[in-house]
Amino acid sequence: MTEPDSADDGWPIGAAAGFIDPVSMEDDPVELFAGDAGTLDADVRRVLVQLLRRKFLLAAKNPAQWRTLLENQQIIESRMHDLFVRLVVDHDRGVAYKQQVRSVELDVPILLKDDPYNRAETLVLVHLRTVFQRERGTGEMSARVDIEELEQTVLTYFDPKDHNVARGQQEVRNAVQRLVTEGLLTEESAGRYRITPMVEVVLSTAKLTELEQWLRGRNEAAA
């Protein structure tokens, strides 16, 4: 009895001898750890984790990760969408960040929790955004501030009855440190900072106007 050796005889092609053509090992994803079922390269995974952990990914600060993001944007975006998180890539400012997807039609579990800025951080942001807008309006490509300038400006909005100046200064410095960590400020020398374009993303023009009006109202009421 002769064994069939073609698909015409009812056997799958390549199975004449009872074997299936092997899949090339080169086509298998690299296992990065025991039991790894992921399909992304290690560098792409690191960018995905960075986007989920941090508020922003800055091109100027992380050029290698920025290139990886742009080269793999579609798959990274897909992974984030699986978590109901939207990826925003701002090429003009060289920044990428995430947003929580919210919908009235769909039951969306909330992954990203709001981490609001406290009083000092908000006041520092308002001043930074004002300075950045003013400098850009004059044609300057960058804007800078000193810690002493920030302290003097921000402390004018604190309760005038609070005479603990040292505590207020420490609040301002803590606020500045958080904004440095988030990439809104870059310390160029001791006590001198460059304001990054991220301040425009965090504080829109409309929001800035709203906060400035509120602060003016507070000052007038206290006068």
TrEMBL record:
What the entry lists under Pfam families is as follows:
DUF4194
Return the InterPro entries for the record: JetB (IPR025449)
Q: Which domain of life is it from?
A: Bacteria
Protein name in the entry: DUF4194 domain-containing protein
Q: What is the lineage of its organism?
A: Bacteria, Bacillati, Actinomycetota, Actinomycetes, Micromonosporales
